[in-house]
User: Fold this.
Amino acid sequence: MTHPEATHHVDGLVGGQFDSTLTPRGERQAAALARALRDRIETSARVAVVASDLQRTRLTAASIGAALGVEPTLDPRLREKSYGEAGGRPQAWLDARFVPPPAVGDRLRHHDGAPGTETRLDVAVRVYDAMTDLLARDVDELVVVTHGFTAGLVVAAWIGMPIEAAGHVAFPVPSGSITTLREDGFFHNRAVVAVGDVAHLR
Assistant:
């Protein structure tokens, strides 16, 4: 899932790895996320909650963990893409320097302008590493609390998309949304059941 409304959203600032927190509205949305998961997950299930270590995801995970009766763990590999020097600056500052990726060619290694920005490949490598470790856990339900750009790569890793093929991957995952991924217990096929569900926020 993606964290709900954060202060950088309402302040018009670049997020990325800028350590913004949840707004009061975001805190209410985190509580709604927690209730939605509590209703969906069997009480007998073995559950793990893992989150990016940034404040906005950490707070979201704490709310979810309290609802599910588990202590979240933090993994910095699940952080949002870093926008380098642009992080925490007005969005207009980045917009003036932003270089969009090409329609074709090496989109994975494309640098989008601001000094210190991660490439898509940088983010994919750390997210795929994190997912390899997380999917080895012996649990029934794994709750991953992350960020919009990163969430797409979590799904790509889940379905086994090779990193080199992830140059175009994107999923519509609004803030505070739940994406449901399910592996069946017999064939071990992996399904993308729902993407970017925000019904719980209404």
User: Anything to note?
Assistant: The chain has a mean pLDDT of 97. Residues 24-40 form the longest helix (17 residues). The radius of gyration is 17 Å. The CA atoms of residues 4 and 176 lie 4 Å apart.
